[in-house]
Amino acid sequence: MVLETFSNPYKAEAHPAWLLLHGAIYTLVAYLLSAWLWPDYTSMVFVFLITAACIPLLYNIIKYEEEKDYYEEKEVILLKEHSKAVLAYFLLFCGVTLTIAGIFLFAPEHTLYNTFDAQIDTLQKINPHIQITGAATEVTGQSSAQLAFFTRIFLNNMNVLLFCILFSFLYGAGAIFILVWNGSVLGVAIGDRIRVGVSQLGATGVSALESYAVVGAHTIFLRYGIHGSLEMIAYIIAGLAGGIISVATIRNHWNTRKFERIVLDSADLILIAIAILFIAGVWEAFITPFFY
Q1: Of 186, 13, 159, which Cα lies nearest the Cα of 95?
Q2: Cα 202–Cα 228–Cα 122 angle in degrees, nearest 5
Q3: Which of 188, 161, 183, 181 is nearest to 275 (CA)?
Q4: For 159-193, what is each residue's pLDDT tens digit?
Q5: CA distance 252 to 60
Q6: pTM, whole model, 2 decimals?
Q7: pLDDT value, residue 207
């Protein structure tokens, strides 16, 4: 496949910024193909197509990271090396998420629900007080107490993290689907929020360009960007941990003295992921409300 040519883990870690463009290309191609060939199932088909495009590169990155575990002894150096892979993953999925947000933002209003019905339904299940109607996000009730809200989102995010570990262990690169799916949901949330903000700000006489700039920056960096990025990084780290163990097992490294080092390294990654999820939950529940 043509898109599989973007699968060199060495280049990805050396020049991670290019993965933003890769993520955008994967997403645009997947969206156009799914909207053209499967218009009634676009919301899920394009997620699968993005996943298929990402698998070669991300699986090669996992194998590369497992090799580092096998030959490197010092944990501090290993974690520093793994951070290169995490950055590569993160920028790729930033490209996916922001492109989906752009598609949602500029797509014809009457096509939004048919195109993103699965993502919209998921957002409304996460927060039943929010209704996305195609052009606006309406709050229909009061949110729960902040501590209860924190507990709910942290436990929900922990479930996602556990699935990332499990899917990566069982399928090697299985967490990619979960990451792409979460990226698509986040992208729809960002796109919808910008639509609402631009509409409200435009009614005050502010120009369209200024509206998109102000609302877009505010939405991406304050409302969703910080805690959303932390959650995505935690899922990536967890998926990397599960994938490293999976690759080590496939390569029969489990019967070597190095396997204990690999398991301990993966355990450290999982603990780091849980700590990041906790910080993300605190930010979303207790800090983000100050801005809204």
Answers
A1: 186
A2: 80
A3: 161
A4: 999 999 998 888 766 789 999 999 999 999 888 88
A5: 17
A6: 0.85
A7: 63
Token output for 196 = 């609402």
Token reading at 17: 């910024």
Following DSSP, what letter does each residue of the chain receive, concatenated? --GGGS--HHHHHHSTTHHHHHHHHHHHHHHHHHHHH-GGGHHHHHHHHHHHHHHHHHHHHHHHHHHHHHH---HHHHHHHHHHHHHHHHHHHHHHHHHHHHHHHHS-GGGHHHHHHHHHHHHHHH-TTEEE-SS-EEE-SPPPPHHHHHHHHHHHHHHHHHHHHHHHHHHSSTHHHHHHHHHHHHHHHHHHHHHHHHHHHHTTT--HHHHHHHHHHHIIIIIIIHHHHHHHHHHHHHHHHHHHHHHHHHTTGGGSTTHHHHHHHHHHHHHHHHHHHHHHHHIIIIIGGGG-
